[in-house]
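hey so i finally got around to running the thing on that chain from the lab meeting. sorry it took forever, my laptop kept dying and i had to restart like 3 times. anyway pasting the input first so we r on the same page abt which one it is
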Amino acid sequence: MHHFNPKLDLAAQVGWLYYVEGLTQDQIAQRLALSRPVAQRMLALARSEGLVKVRLDHPIAACNELAAALAARFGLRLCEVVPAPAADSELRSLGVAGATLLERYIQRPEPLVIGLATGRTLRAVVDEVARHPSPQHRIATLLGVIAPDGASNPFEAHTWLADKIGAQSFVLPVPVLADSPAEREQLQAQRLYRVVAELAVRADVTLIGIGTVDANGALLQDGFITEADVERLHREGAAGEMLGWIYDTDGRLLDTDINRRVTSIPLQRHPQRLIIAIAGGLSKLGAIRAALHGECLSGLITDDRVARALLEDG
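ok and heres what got predicted. didnt touch it at all, straight out
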């Protein structure tokens, strides 16, 4: 039964005209013979009293809910979820989301250090970044940029980003994997390595990818490891890789010879700075889940299929 309340009834009428009929506050004031301030107050009252309930009928609304749930479940400071695209546009969808985030930092006037990994996903992110002169920033790589044959990595992203924003880039002048643990020690002892590594670990924001350890994984595809290595790593419990570091289903680094040769910046649990992984596709679900369990990330950008699967089984 409706109880007559003149103020709430007027608020409901104002709310209807504004949200359903699409009138402006000036038009509502004119139609109901109200002053504009009164129309504003009635509209605010309609919202505060719960007379107005907004439902956004768009995939992004569900994505926002998934992102909030993922952030709460895994203790993330930042999480964004995008609608899962067709397979042939998966990288671009993640790239657009990553670029949108990255541009927020690029457009800041204070000097920042931006940490950047390499790989197809990170290259897709930089492809979508708009040109914006920002010479105050510095870009630092977190892993080696030299391919096994001595060539530069075809999917490096730092030089491309530096060119787009007019910033300096700093690279680790080493391969992703050294030939031996002893060689890794020698490479990491170099002054240039130490200078860039010290810059990278204090980056204000860092973007990395998440890879699988299988036939489709970047480590194998780009020639850093062999098929025999993949089979052996699987037997040892490999679930995924970040920056070349191989980890198990709990996100813990494997005690394996590969990790003893990785030259990348080390992964740290509970990072104080913003470390954001960008990865999607159900083929990477296991690697993403394990990375989250390892608690080395403070942010994630992924797609809604992966997000739902992560929330269903953790």
